[in-house]
Amino acid sequence: MAVPLLDLRLQYHALKDELDAALIRVAESQVCILGPEVSALEKELAAYLGVRHAIGVSSGTDALLMALMALDIGPGDEVIVPTFSFFATAGCVSRTGATPVLVDVDHTAYNMDPALLERAITPRTKAIIPVHLFGQAAPMDQILTIADAHGIPVIEDAAQAIGTTWRDGRPVGGLGRIGCFSFYPTKNLGAFGDAGLITTNDDELAVRLIQLRNHGMEPKYYHAFIGGNFRLDALQAAVLRVKLPYLDQWHAARQHNAGLYERLFVEAGVSTGPGRTTFSADDLILLPEAVNHTASSGSNHHIFNQYTIRSAHRNALRAHLADRGIGAEIYYPVPFHRQACFADLQARDTDFPVANCLADTVLSIPIFPELSEAQIREVVETIVDFERNHAAEPAECADCKECGTTH
Ligand SMILES: *Cc1c(COP(=O)(O)O)cnc(C)c1O
Predict the structure, then answer these.
(1) Is 332 a residue whose pLDDT tops 50?
(2) Which residues line ligand 1 (CB under 6 A)?
C-alpha cells in the first residue's frame, strides 16, 4: 500500500463544490487583487486568531520581510533566529541588510532554546524571531520575558502554526509584536498557490504594514517610504475562506493520527513514548512530544504540520520507506549555520550541537488528516521492521558527540 507524505487532492475533492463555486465567484467579479474577498478573509482570520489586525499578503516569506521592514530593521542591526527552521526565517533578515544571529534549539520541541537567547542579545539586537516549528509553539513565556526586559520586539514565525495555542489557550501569532503566517499549500491551511498573513495588535503598525503591502503608497502615487508589491490575490483569499471553517477539524484529525502513531510505536516496542532524547535498546526511534500542553489549554497545543520522528539510521530508513512507496522528508537537512550563503556569519559548528544532531536524525512521516488507519499501520510496521533489523548497526550520526544523545 503506497502512503504519500501528503495528498492534497483528497482535501480538494472533499470540498470541490464549495471551492469551485468560490473560484467562479472571483472569476465573475474580476476583482483579482485585494478587494472584498481579501477583506472578508482578513476579518475571519482576525477573529480566529484573536488579533486586532490580520493583513493578507503575498506569502509567508513576504510577511517576515514586511515585519522587519515595518520595524525599520536594516544594515548594522542584528536579529536573533533559531538555526533550525525553513530558510525564509533567516533569509529575510539578510535581505534587509541586517545580520541574522543564530541560536541553537532544544531537543524535545526543536524550537529556539531560551537559555541561549539571553546570551545572544547585544546592543544591536533589533528583533527576535522565534519559530513555532512543525506546528508547536516556541517557549513564549521565557522568550517574551527576556525580550521585554531588553525592550526588543518579537516577530513570531507562525508559518507552520496557524491555530496552535500557547499554554493559556491563546493562539500563536498574537503573542509577540507581529505574527507571520504562510498559506503555502502544504501548511495546515493551504491556498492554491502562494499566500500569507501578517498579524498585529498595534494599530499604528497595522497602518504602516497595509501601506508597505502596496509600495508604501498613501495617497495614490505618493510614497512616504518604500514598500513592495506584497498584495494577496482574491482567488487565494476565496479558497482560504472556504477552508478556514474546516481547519480545527483537520487539526483534530492530525492530532488523532499523531496519537495513533504514538500508541502503535510504543506497542511495537520501538519507543517508550515521547520526550526521550536518547536512543537506546528501548527507544530505537524518538517520538515528537507536545511540550506545552496543560489540561486547561484546549486541544491545539500542537497542530502537527509535521510529525517528525528521529532515527539513528535516518538516511537508510528514508530510502527503505521510499522503496515501499511511503513518503517521508527531511525537514531540515542543513541548519542555517551550515548554509553556504551564511558562511560570512562565521558561525562555529560546535555552537549548535542539537541542530546538528537533528539535521542528521529527523524524518517527517505522513500525518495529513485524510490518512486511513490502515495507512498509518502500514507506515508503523514498515518503520518497526526496519529499525529492528538495523538496531545493531552503527548509527549514521555516530560523530555527533556533543548533543547529549548517545547512540
Ligand atoms: C513555509 C514557511 C515560511 C515561508 O512561507 P512561504 O509562504 O512559503 O513564503 C517561513 N517560515 C517557515 C518556518 C515556514 O515553514
Answers:
(1) yes
(2) 59-61, 85-86, 88-89, 131, 157, 159-160, 182, 184, 194, 196
